[in-house]
Design brief:
This protein is mainly alpha-helical and about 110 residues long. It is built from four helices and no strands. The chain has one domain: Orthogonal Bundle (Cytochrome Bc1 Complex, Chain D, domain 2), CATH 1.10.760. The chain binds heme C (HEC).
């Protein structure tokens, strides 16, 4: 009995560590996406809510944002600034940006 006691706290510590890690990584992913999205705020507004002149990205379907960014990146879609800008992002970053803007409330 005595030898078995330490295993429970050890298991709890491992579980707590695993849960903590899962939470932290989700928050880190969100923070990373927000950081990427900050680049877009200058033209598309804070949180993707445009003050006018550009599209409001907040609440736009994730697929539409990702598809449009990839089209700018590949040159399939023409534009003034977006083709140039989209070339700077990896596919994973495009997906993260699309997911983040899609999850923002358009108000
Ligand atoms: C310098 C200003 C500027 C910045 C910065 C900018 N955009 Fe744009 N965005 C535009 C303009 C202007 C258009 C219209 C297409 C064009 O002329 O390139 C556009 C179009 C778009 C569209 C298509 C919208 C639609 O409904 O057709 C998407 C999606 C988009 N931008 C996403 C982004 C994302 C994501 C970022 C950040 C990584 C970003 N933009 C940063 C100016 C900007």
């Amino acid at each position: 009995m005595k030898e078995r006691l330490p295993t429970i706290p050890a298991a709890l510590t491992a579980l707590a560590a695993a849960l903590g890690w899962a939470c932290a990584s989700a928050q880190e992913a969100d923070a990373a996406a927000r950081g990427l999205a900050a680049t877009c705020a200058g033209c598309h507004g804070t949180g993707g809510i445009s003050a006018g002149g550009t599209a409001t990205l907040a609440g736009m379907p994730k697929d539409a944002i990702a598809r449009t960014l990839r089209a700018y990146k590949s040159g399939a879609l023409e534009g003034t600034v977006m083709p140039q800008l989209a070339k700077g992002y990896t596919d994973a970053q495009i997906d993260a940006l699309a997911a983040w803007f899609a999850s923002q409330k358009a108000r």
